[in-house]
Amino acid sequence: MNKFLTMKKIIVPTDFSEHALSALKVASNLARKTNAEIELVHVYEIPLAGFSSSRHIGYDQKELKRMMDEFHDELKKIAGTPIVKGITVRTHLIPNVDFTEILEQKDLEDADLIVCGTHGTNGWKEEMIGSNTEKLIRKSTCPVLTVREDSGDKESFPEVVFASSFYGETYDVFPKLKYIVELLGGRFNLLSVNTASQFQTTYYAEKLMKDFAEKEGLKDYTINIFNDESREDGVINFCNRINADLIVMETHGRTGLAHLLTGSVTEDVANHANRPLLSIKINKPIISYGAIFPESR
After folding, report:
1. Closest CA to 21 of 78, 73, 76, 100
2. Consecutive sets of 10 residues in the chain, 297 residues long: mean pLDDT of each?
3. Which of 1, 133, 175, 217: disulfide with 118, CB 3.0–4.6 Å?
4. Could you state, in order of their start, the residue ranges of all structural domains in the chain?
5. Domain 1-149 classified CATH 3.40.50.2000?
6. Burial of 50 (0-12, 13-18, 19+ CB in 10 A)
7. pLDDT at residue number 133
8. Is the fold of 1-149 the same as that of 156-297?
9. pLDDT for position 231
10. Which CATH architecture has domain 156-297?
11. Can you spell out the DSSP letters for the chain?
């Protein structure tokens, strides 16, 4: 375990679904191992009653009070369950914000990890607006662990696939990922995916992974090269082959036009892989001259 890393605050967004409950179970296991506190967050929309004669927006105060009472009761009930027994849990109701704006709340801005439930998306909804999970992966400055409904009762995640380019930018963020994976009881299966448009020789790919493992002090790990039609397919198909418990990836966190043009392999895997995923946003590299090798994550 990396003695220089700690975990003090874990954010768990909830919509009171079974997926959110599974996320809370995983977060609670981590909190007990690190003595971390849990910030339980629910984001809601204030009900509108229409416009007043002065053209100001009017709110349905009666409905708002009913909703607030209901949300407070739900959060209080969750905070009192045996799942979080012995853990400090703070509850937050945040109105009328984009989901990722929870990261900007004063009480939540210094979180060490976000654990959220997800069931993936598909079709036009995924393509046009994305899921809340996608947004968190894209914008969060701390690691994000997405959890499926059937993962909440797992005490450990022994087989972990770390899919990466293993270039220099990976080294800066990997210690945080390694720390969390160790807490989850996992060992690393290092994965380099080859595609027709992004091909590496076996010798070069293996050398990148071996050098990476040596520098990061990995002891129990495997090295794997997998060929597929796309990086997303390669990660998912390899994980299916070894029945992985957890996928670990980095993301560049592109937004706006850059995101629309290039997309994100990490977000696509989060949506389509039927497994938990731990992601972290890498820092944009600063170079004084030359160029960095192109990366389409």
Report:
1. 78
2. 76 90 95 96 74 53 83 93 96 79 79 84 39 77 87 86 90 93 96 92 95 95 96 95 95 47 66 87 57 42
3. 133
4. 1-149, 156-297
5. no
6. exposed
7. 75
8. yes
9. 93
10. 3-Layer(aba) Sandwich (3.40)
11. --TT----EEEEE--SSHHHHHHHHHHHHHHHHHT-EEEEEEEEPPPEEEE-TTS-EEE-HHHHHHHHHHHHHHHHHHHTSGGGTTS-EEEEEEES--GGGGGGSTTTTT-SEEEEE-----HHHHHHT--HHHHHHHH-SS-EEEE-GGGTT-S---EEEEE----HHHHHHHHHHHHHHHHTT-EEEEEEEE-SSS---HHHHHHHHHHHHHHTT--SEEEEEEE-SSHHHHHHHHHHHHT-SEEEEEE----HHHHHHH--HHHHHHHH-SS-EEEEEPPPP--SSS-PPP---
